[in-house]
Amino acid sequence: MDSYAVFGHPINHSRSPFIHQRFAAQTEQALKYRAIEAPLDDFAKTVEAFFQGDGKGANVTVPFKEQAFALCTEVSERASRAGAVNTLVKTANGEIHGDNTDGIGLVTDLLNKQVTLSNSRILLLGAGGAARGVILPLLAQQPASIVISNRTVSKAQALVELFDHSALSASDLTQLDNYQFDLIINATSAGLSGNMPSLSSKCLHDDTVCYDMVYMKGQTPFNQWASQNGVKQCFDGLGMLVEQAAESFFIWRGVKPNTQMILSELRTML
Ligand code: NDP
Q1: How many Å apart are CA 25 and CA 255, to the nearest integer?
Q2: Cα–Cα–Cα angle for 59, 107, 44, nearest 5°?
Q3: Cβ(157)–Cβ(182) under 8 Å?
Q4: What φ, ψ does residue 22 adopt, rounded to 5°?
Q5: How many other C-beta atoms are found inside a 10 Å radius of the C-beta of residue 85?
Q6: Farthest-apart Cα atoms in the chain, separation
């Protein structure tokens, strides 16, 4: 039976084994999928051993996505621009190819939720790995603009320089008062510690949609703030998690699983 895994540290919280086992059952694919905790100083060797055995493909999560990028023989354009890999594939000649499905996972989830991206004014909060990974797939939807804003503004400016696209600009969080956005994506990890970036409610209009990449039981701090300020549509990142997994599954197996049933199941498990 073909073997797949997710590598991370820590990894016992990972929902990926549950998601991929459900995908496999639903699409009648015979495969195994497990979580492997790689030592912090030995990621590459752990992955190599997996692929020298029966490993056919893998996901990679925190904190190894950049190291995964470095060990690939070849990477996709979207992984190259993200500077990080979350999906590994062993090719027929034994090489390891890398891809990044986080960005397409976000875009698919937003489109599933009928959020308009084309011609939209988007505010992207954060300038870490997650923000970097979604810029190219968001630009592919031809938004009117994407303003990147981050607590450390120099990192937002560095992303704008890296992607070098006319729709992109960087702004200090404190200087957003004069702009209103159609979609605000929180790609910071602030929610994990019960916080949110300090953002003015002047950025909101009557139909602004808010999306937090963080997910948890109940509303995230960012979505609480949005709701309290009248935002009617607030989403968390659970759908992104399932959609990035579905894209990895498609890369490995050539079939697209149905994501909506699994999403509902996962929601009840939070
Ligand atoms: P990084 O550590 O690379 O970046 C963290 C970002 O959050 C930085 O921009 C940092 O700002 C900002 N930040 C952290 N704390 C605060 C705070 N208190 N106030 C304001 N800004 C803050 O993380 P990633 O980019 O890899 O991940 C970001 C989040 O996205 C994580 O919570 C992760 O769980 C989530 N994620 C969700 C996915 C999904 O499928 N749903 C997929 C990938 C990520 P600064 O630069 O100033 O430090």
Answers
A1: 12
A2: 20
A3: no
A4: -65, -45
A5: 31
A6: 57
Q: What is the pLDDT averaged over residues 208-215?
A: 97
Whether pTM > 0.90 for this model: the answer is: yes
Peptide bond into 197 cis (omega under 30): no
**Residue 25 in contact with ligand 1 by CB distance below 6 A:** no
- Atom of ligand 1 lying closest to residue 215 CA: 41
Identify the band that residue 177 occupies on the pLDDT scale cut at 50, 70 and 90. confident
Residue 214 C-alpha to ligand 1 middle, in angstroms?
8
195 touches ligand 1 (CB under 6 Å): yes
Cβ(136)–Cβ(81) below 8 Å: yes
**% of the chain at pLDDT higher than 70:** 100
Instruction: Report the alpha-carbon distance of residue 77 to residue 140 in Å, rounded.
Output: 13
Q: Beta strands 55-60 and 87-90: pairing type?
A: antiparallel
Q: Which of 16, 151, 199 to mutate to test the pocket of ligand 1 (most atoms within 8 A of CB)?
A: 151
Each residue's pLDDT tens digit, 75-111: 999 999 999 999 999 999 999 999 999 999 999 999 9
